[in-house]
Amino acid sequence: MILNPKLLFTFSPLHRLQWEEVQQKTVILYPEGMVELNQSSAEILELCDGTRKLADIVKELEIKFEVSNLINDVSAFLEVALENGWVTQR
Amino acid sequence: MTLSPPKTITPPRWLLAELTYACPLQCPYCSNPIDYTKYKSELSTGDWKRVLSEARKMGAVQLGFSGGEPLIRPDLVELVQHARELGYYSNLITSGYGLTEEKIVELKTAGLDHIQVSIQASTQELNDHIAGTKSFEHKQDVARLVKKHGYPMVLCVVIHRENIHQMPEILAMAEALGADYLELANTQYYGWAHLNRDLLLPTKEQFETAEAIAQAYKEKVAGKMKIYYVVPDFYEDRPKACMNGWATTFLTIAPDGMALPCHSARNLPNFECPNVNDFSVSDIWHDSKAFNFFRGYDWMQEPCRSCDEKEKDFGGCRCQAYLLTGDAGATDPVCSKSPQHYVIDDLLATARKFALSENEKPLIFRNSKNARI
Lengths: 90, 373
Ligand code: SF4
Ligand code: SF4
Prior knowledge:
The structure holds 2 protein chains of 2 kinds.
Chain A: E1 9-11, E2 16-20, E3 25-30, E4 33-37, H1 39-46, E5 49-52, H2 54-65, H3 71-83, E6 87-89
Antiparallel strand pairs in A: 1-5, 1-6, 2-3, 3-4
Chain B: E1 14-18, H1 45-58, E2 62-66, H2 76-86, E3 89-94, H3 101-110, E4 114-118, H4 124-131, H5 136-148, E5 153-159, H6 167-177, E6 181-186, H7 191-195, H8 197-200, H9 204-220, E7 226-230, E8 250-253, E9 259-260, H10 281-287, H11 289-293, H12 310-313, H13 318-325, H14 342-356
Parallel strand pairs in B: 1-2, 1-8, 2-3, 3-4, 4-5, 5-6, 6-7
Antiparallel strand pairs in B: 8-9
Helix pairs in contact in B: 1-2, 2-3
Bound molecules: iron/sulfur cluster (2 copies).
């Protein structure tokens, strides 16, 4: 699956993204499974709300964390997310 | 009191709520106890709510409503709603029997996350024979309705000698129904399946053919349908890492409130599992004798005790060790290092003889007439 920078990202309606208090972690829940996320992955997925493209997500995170050059990390993770069906593009 | 280093106790993550043992179907591989008619009392709605709340507070997040047939419980919607409010990711594990479109919508509104429908075979004749009840067409309708109402649709087919030859058709059926997940669960030989093992256990050739077909299909539908293939461990030389280790991750509550570290544990001899009527879930998980019994590695006998693979498989399954060797603390005989590994060879040979013979004995269906009291 190839990421398309022109399309918007939406978190999959067949999965659930949720903060777990006991684990102090955000997790993805789906039938028969659960993935624990680190903080940056969780931040990326939370921005996949159907209103943002790759560049928008990168820009927001760069501003929030006061860093630059996140494009490679973010797109690498979103590729993984697409492959696993956690997000879709429209 | 003996002083031993405290064991690290991880919180439960998966809770299986067996709401009732009642079921209109009669699957001969049912994992319910063969004396299930003995346990007539069922937890009240209030008790279930308390159990769900306590386990959630400890960290449980994946929740399965199962049985028997959980749809039989009139308070199912109420429990689903309570689970949603607590933040569980909840799953209804159903035969589909009695599931209407109205109920599917009602459960969705209450917050149910997904529905797992079991189908016994790819043809009506075989499905209805194995289920012991006419149910094939209704199950297909239910699968379509689950999909229609926006749930991830999980289809579950238990695989055994009567249906293993249908593997290509089962895969095609799942794809045609639009399943998001297909669970191909090779029969695990506990409960009724243990009773019917000679008739259900496929031959090695049948296993290998079916597995190759399923693996190839997995690639074909990658990205569309996820296939979970549950391996049958009798043909392996290492046991499964049962329950991800005793009382580390999974908690089952039986219909009568008995708390089980694994859903067959109530059959272990001289093994008193605690009941949620008497203790809190937290006390049960942390302090009960049953949950601590096979926790960690101290309980192990040789060859597990000094084995460098014990952190991988935890010595295998306690219930399988008991059923096949008579000792719940023994190395799972599936392991080729087990001194009792020959029992696996023997049972495979016996099942094979039945498979190749012309006149097989009849299956024992799960129903109250056949239940051992
Ligand atoms: S395995 Fe069959 S008989 Fe047993 S509870 Fe499930 S549907 Fe009912
Ligand atoms: S001896 Fe025990 S721990 Fe070692 S591989 Fe076999 S079952 Fe696992």
